[in-house]
Amino acid sequence: MKRALIAFAAASALIATPAFAADGNLPGGTSIAVTIATPADGAAVAPGPVTVTGTASVGTGVPVAGTSLIYVLDASSSTANPGAPSCGNILQCEIAAGLALNAQAQSGTIGDVGMVAFGVTAATADVQPGAGDQLLTGPATDGDGNGVRDIEEVISSTFINGVAKFTNKNVGGGQTNFADAIAKARTVAQASTRARKVVVFMSDGFAVGGGSINVPLAGIPDDIDIYTFAVGGGADCDYAGPNNEGSLEQITAATVPGGHCVQVTDVASLPAILPAVIGSRLTALSMRVDGGAFTPIGNAAITPDLPQDGPVNVNYSVATPALGIGSHEICVRADGTDGGGAGQVTDCHTVVVNGPGGAFAVEATGLVKVPRTPEAVCPPGATKTQVAVDLPPLVTTGALNASCSATGGTTTARSSVDGATLLGGAIQLSAVSSTCTGSSSGVNRSSQVVGTINGTPISAGPATIGIPGVATVHLNESTTGPGGRLVQNAVRVEVLGLLGIVTQQIVLGSCYLG
Fold first, then answer.
1. How close are the terminal C-alpha atoms of the chain, in Å?
2. Which pLDDT score is estimated for 19?
3. What would the pLDDT profile of 411-434 be if each residue is shown by its tens digit?
4. What InterPro entries does the entry give (predicted)?
5. Where are the alpha helices (DSSP H) in 240-390?
6. What does the pLDDT look like over 371-400, one tens digit per residue?
7. pLDDT tens digits for 262-301?
């Protein structure tokens, strides 16, 4: 079954054969690359959209000579008709187009080249000056050392009814034989060991002899693609001949799924059109987050705009959707085409979003003020220990501890107090601690208080205990602070003044996320 193909349009043929790597090669051998420059792989980033920057290129790296290119020239008598002032008669314009294409073939993706001329019959050209009939040569080979590439000598030696180099061969000029031209092109293509074979088939007319094209097209291998060009006002992509021999359109349709014959009414444009067959192009960039669908990166985020013919390098800067706490994979894909078809490469980086948080061991507000002591905040994160607070009869503590760390998408804040006495001994605590953990899996808050209130042991779990006329004590309290901050207080004491009005607040062992 033939490969899938992106349609031949505007004289560019593209076959969908994807590759996946940050650096690689398109099916025809042209280099293609995409790189995420920022954020770095494994970077920690803030919650919200993340700006992704990088570059993409086609045709700027090391090519792979994976394609064979076969020129097929119509040398029938009618090609002596006028073509265009810029190139001469129709045959001379075909020759000029072939030479322009071979100049493009020097990019390094074409491994070998061959040629066929046809009229009443078709003949494979001898493309090397040495002994024997050689079907293939290098696109830049100059075997006779005369300063002219051998294949270009052969193309230039094509005459009405034949080809002169390096062995003279006559094909007759009274008819146009598509079937034999296909058969001979197939012979040359199958002599090559390259992975892809691209045949460029030019004709100024339509088949009027030689039988049906279905015979040489039967069983043609998937790696041979024949791109046809109807050259001049007397040519027709769709006419199948007087005896239904077959059309140029049918030749391409049989070998290039989705491809079409190109009508070249303006013969002078043929030398400019033909090189696009093996030219490269960077066609699109797209981005994917966390395994979702790739979405296009618009030209507002790309410099210069796409598509661009290769060789080319572009820069991009695009923002992701808002990223929540946790690990996220960001991938950027570059799509391109060359003479072998279409392909793509993808670069992926993983980033980690760590949520903000913090913890403190003690804080007093009201008539007596104690700032959060010590306080550790994420980002950047810290571990702090401080000596006791001694403010009797309000509060006396042991050592004070607070820490916060954010790594791998998990933020952990902890605080503890190594014992405390509050309100002249009404509250006696031997251990106070709290822990807050936030990740993409969710939020966990917990605390522990060991001690007594008016001699009664404190039980586990959240509780609110009143000391009549003195204070209200909140234990293991989970609450929400300003801006939606999630708070866990091990102990929060509200000291009451006259008329039961709160005049002082003391917090021990607190942590928060957000």
1. 57
2. 33
3. 999 999 999 999 999 999 999 999
4. VWF_A, vWFA_dom_sf
5. 248-255, 270-273
6. 999 999 998 899 999 999 999 999 999 999
7. 999 999 999 999 988 889 999 999 999 999 999 999 999 9
CA distances to 29, 97, 128 from 272, in Å = 22, 7, 27
Angstrom distance (rounded) from CA 185 to CA 198: 10
- Nearest alpha-carbon partner for 231 in 259, 265, 271: 265
Strands (E) in 257-397, as ranges, are 262-264, 281-289, 295-296, 302-303, 308-309, 312-319, 326-338, 341-353, 357-366, 370-378, 382-386, 390-391, 395-397
Q: What is the mean pLDDT of the chain?
A: 92
Overall residue count recorded for the chain in this entry: 514
Burial class (CB within 10 angstroms; exposed 0-12, middle 13-18, buried 19+) of 472: middle
CA 215 to chain centre: 42
Residues 6+ away with beta carbon under 8 Å from 305: 299
In angstroms, how far is CA 353 from the centroid of its own chain? 22
- In terms of Cβ atoms closer than 10 Å to its own Cβ (0-12, 13-18, 19+), residue 498 is exposed
CA–CA gap between residue 184 and residue 200 (Å, rounded): 13
SS (H, E, C) 125-142: CCCCCCCCCCCCECCCCC
